[in-house]
């Protein structure tokens, strides 16, 4: 019997805006000039935040902080395609996403200063607390999406994770359930090429992460993760598809961590400087500026204004953050159960008196 | 002799064992090129090559599950889990398989592996980087659970754990990784598993602890001065623990305080008290007191000091027992 080919696969890559600021207008999603400015202002705001938070950590004004430089477009572009009532299940590197999704900057700072109050999400948006264990949030997103589907809500759930997370069973089980139950979920992998020191090649023998979706029976694609238009468009299509009842999508945002893994890490131990410099040329903000300049959406005065505006917003939040009263130590008991156990009451009494 | 911290003692112990036995392999996340996030495996990949000091994909279940297979087939894997809060993804592998292979194969297969992981709080780390789960692992028959408290014991216990015929969880006290320096032998020596250490002899009260809390207890004892004569017992191995040393000490002193960083309910202190009740009840002059964390998940950095036992809490516990 001759062998037959049962299936053949292809993996698509989407780039709309290249690193020189050239744009493929045919692929361009519908975005008004105001939308483009909004995206730009958001990208700048979170970058200013990131740098400020890093500096504060170095000055001892903040605890361990996880930077996201290089991944702004992944988070800002995708957030732009989601509604407040959609659910996001973020990871620790998603401070930009949270800021874009109305999490007050003061609280983001509080969280990174080891203050639980920072985790309380505002009521008008569905943001789950960030996951510290790698990859564990993926199944939650599938469950939330599934619940939306079963209850006839028009909600979509999006979950964010790194390339390292795709090695965990959590990721594969989430993908499998999403496929089997056709849940309205969008998997957003921010492939920044490293899991701390371990390169992407060591996480999987697959050439792309996007192709893993094929094995679970749904669409996966790779996008330029420093191209905010491409990330936005891919997410928008995935969200619309999910909302229409047509199931999950995996979006691999191909990008680079332009910073150490965290403020406790030193990437020069394991990452060649040349590689870092090559990637710096692809920066999302710079290429958007080039494009906007050509379109006369940006000039030096506007650029300057956006930076200053961002600095003001961040400084105001920092001032507010530093004036916050300390948390009440009794809070450690407050949210463990709906009702405290007798032993907890005894322990609280022992620790704090009446 | 060479001056070493706990984390350096781990590094020396691993180097010694890798050099001694070609079947020893070290595997985990970032253990190779990066030398581990705490540098516990610093330089080892360079010395022994990437087939023996292995950077794995990010998957704790994979690391532990594959270590079991390696152990069954003649290697001696030393798996590193980056922080103790991330062992839980591999719990099924430990409980259902590592702990039971000897029994389920009627001795045909065994699982001589070591799982090293930094544990405990006190360094303002992120969520789930501060867990103290020694009681969870001690509740699994078939696993051994070891927690050193100083550089000398670290190297000696690690060497002994690596020679064990059964799986060992090796909990490294992250908080004092670099806080204590001690002269330790460069050559091979062993601190046997299952043997407690009487860190200080005394007659009035038995103070039992382990890991990073031992230093807290030592500081408390120092602060007490000559007020009471305290016998400080460093358990070193949690399971199987040295019941004989504990019971004979409590019989001698008649009073006991147990200090652990894990929360109170079902902490290992409960097991110790049960043994004391079974074997030394009539020697007791006062109820045994536990100084532990409260029954809440480990809080974020700002409030961790309220959660953790400290010198004052230990002294309060001691006074309670002495004043009974
Ligand atoms: C289950 C688990 N294992 C290990 C860690 C420690 N750790 C934190 S981040 C990280 C690397 C994650 O890499 P990746 O998933 O690619 O995301 P990135 O940090 O690069 O954004 C590791 C090993 C953790 N937080 N959770």
Number of continuous helical runs of chain B? 12
CATH topology term of the largest domain in chain A: Rossmann fold
Low-confidence stretches of chain B: none
Q: Main beta sheet of chain B, described?
A: 7 strands, mixed
Secondary structure: number of strands of chain B: 14
Q: Considering the protein shown, what is the CATH homologous superfamily of the largest domain in chain A? A: Thiamin diphosphate (ThDP)-binding fold, Pyr/PP domains
Which class of secondary structure composition applies to the elements of chain B? alpha/beta
> What is the count of distinct domains of chain B?
2
CATH class category label of the largest domain in chain B: Alpha Beta
- Strand tally of chain A is 9
- Discrete helix count of chain A: 13
Indicate the proportion of strand residues of chain A: 5-15%
Number of domains of chain A: 2
Strand content of chain B: 15-25%
List ligands, each type once: thiamine diphosphate
Q: Strand order of the main beta sheet of chain B, please?
A: 3-2-4-5-7-6-12
Head-to-tail CA distance between termini of chain A: 83 Å
Strand order of the largest sheet of chain A: 1-8-9-5-4-2-3
Order of helices and strands of chain B: EHEHEHEHHEHEHEEEEHEEHEHEHH
Structural class of chain A: alpha/beta
List its salient traits.
heterodimer; A: about 350 residues; alpha/beta; Rossmann fold; 2 domains; 7-stranded parallel beta sheet; 13 helices; 9 strands; about 45% helix; about 10% strand; globular; B: about 325 residues; 5-stranded mixed beta sheet; 14 strands; binds thiamine diphosphate
Structure in words:
The complex is a heterodimer of chains A (354) and B (324). By secondary structure, chain A is an alpha/beta fold. Chain A has 13 helices and 9 strands. In chain B, 36% of the residues lie in helices and 20% in strands. The mean pLDDT of chain B is 97. The A-B interface holds A 63-64, 92, 111, 113-116, 132-135, 164-165, 167-170, 195-198, 202-204, 264-265, 269-270, 326-327, 329, 331-333, 336, 341, 343-344, 347-348, 351 and B 29-30, 32-35, 37, 55-62, 85-86, 89, 124-129, 264-265, 294-297, 299-304, 306-307. The complex binds thiamine diphosphate. Thiamine diphosphate sits between chains A (93, 132-134, 161-165, 192, 194-196, 257, 261) and B (29, 58, 60, 82, 86, 89).
């Amino acid at each position: 019997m001759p062998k037959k080919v049962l299936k053949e696969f292809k993996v698509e890559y989407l780039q709309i805006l290249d690193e020189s600021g050239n744009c493929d207008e045919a692929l361009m999603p519908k975005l008004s000039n105001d939308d483009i400015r909004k995206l730009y202002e958001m990208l700048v705001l979170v970058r200013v935040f990131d740098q400020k938070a890093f500096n504060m950590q170095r000055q001892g004004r903040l605890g361990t902080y996880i930077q996201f430089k290089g991944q702004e477009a992944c988070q800002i572009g995708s957030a732009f395609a989601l509604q407040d009532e959609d659910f996001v299940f973020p990871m620790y590197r998603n401070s930009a996403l949270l800021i874009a999704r109305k999490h007050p900057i003061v609280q983001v700072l509080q969280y990174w200063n080891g203050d639980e109050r920072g985790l309380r999400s505002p009521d008008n948006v569905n943001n789950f607390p960030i996951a510290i264990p790698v990859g564990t949030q993926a199944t939650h997103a599938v469950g939330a999406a599934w619940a939306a589907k079963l209850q006839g809500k028009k909600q979509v759930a999006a979950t964010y994770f790194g390339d390292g997370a795709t090695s965990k069973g959590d990721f594969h089980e989430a993908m499998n359930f999403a496929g089997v139950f056709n849940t309205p979920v969008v998997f957003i992998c921010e492939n920044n090429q490293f899991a701390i020191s371990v390169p992407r090649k060591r996480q999987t023998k697959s050439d792309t992460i996007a192709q893993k979706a094929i094995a679970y029976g749904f669409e996966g694609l790779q996008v330029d993760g420093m191209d905010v238009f491409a990330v936005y468009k891919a997410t928008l299509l995935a969200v619309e598809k999910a909302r229409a009842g047509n199931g999950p999508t995996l979006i691999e945002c191909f990008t680079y961590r332009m910073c150490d893994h965290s403020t406790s890490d030193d990437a020069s131990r394991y990452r060649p400087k040349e590689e870092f410099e090559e990637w710096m040329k692809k920066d999302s903000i710079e290429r958007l500026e080039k494009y906007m300049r050509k379109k006369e959406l940006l000039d030096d005065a506007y650029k300057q204004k956006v930076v200053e505006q961002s600095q003001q917003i961040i400084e105001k939040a920092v001032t507010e953050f530093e004036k916050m009263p300390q948390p009440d130590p009794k809070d450690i008991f407050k949210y463990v159960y709906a009702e405290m156990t007798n032993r907890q009451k005894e322990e609280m009494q022992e620790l704090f008196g009446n | 002799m060479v001056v070493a911290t706990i984390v350096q003692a781990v590094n020396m112990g691993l180097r010694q064992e890798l050099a001694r036995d070609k079947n020893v392999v070290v595997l985990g996340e970032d253990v190779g090129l990066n030398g581990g996030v705490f540098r516990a495996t610093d330089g080892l990949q360079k010395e022994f090559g990437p087939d023996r000091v292995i950077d794995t994909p990010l998957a704790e279940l994979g690391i532990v599950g594959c270590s079991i297979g390696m152990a069954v087939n003649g290697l001696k894997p030393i798996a590193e889990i980056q922080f103790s809060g991330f062992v839980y993804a591999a719990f099924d592998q430990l409980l259902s398989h590592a702990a039971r292979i000897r029994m389920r194969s009627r001795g045909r297969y065994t699982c001589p592996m070591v799982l090293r992981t930094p544990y405990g709080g006190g360094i303002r780390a992120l969520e789930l980087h501060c867990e103290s789960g020694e009681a969870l692992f001690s509740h699994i028959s078939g696993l051994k659970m070891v927690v050193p408290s100083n550089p000398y014991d670290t190297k000696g216990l690690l060497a002994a754990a690596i020679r064990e015929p059964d799986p060992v969880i090796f909990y490294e006290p992250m908080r004092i990784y670099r806080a204590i320096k001690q002269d330790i032998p460069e050559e091979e020596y062993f601190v046997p598993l299952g043997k407690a250490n009487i860190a200080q002899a005394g007659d009035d009260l038995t103070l039992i602890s382990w890991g990073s809390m031992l230093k807290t207890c030592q500081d408390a004892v120092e602060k007490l001065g000559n007020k009471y004569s305290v016998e400080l017992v460093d358990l070193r191995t949690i399971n199987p623990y040295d019941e004989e040393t504990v019971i004979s000490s409590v019989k001698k002193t008649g009073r006991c305080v147990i200090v652990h960083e894990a929360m109170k309910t079902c902490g290992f202190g409960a097991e110790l008290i049960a043994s004391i009740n079974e074997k030394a009840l009539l020697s007791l002059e006062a109820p045994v007191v536990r100084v532990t964390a409260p029954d809440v998940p480990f809080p974020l950095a700002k409030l961790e000091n309220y959660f953790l036992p400290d010198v004052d809490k230990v002294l309060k516990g001691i006074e309670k027992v002495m004043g009974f």
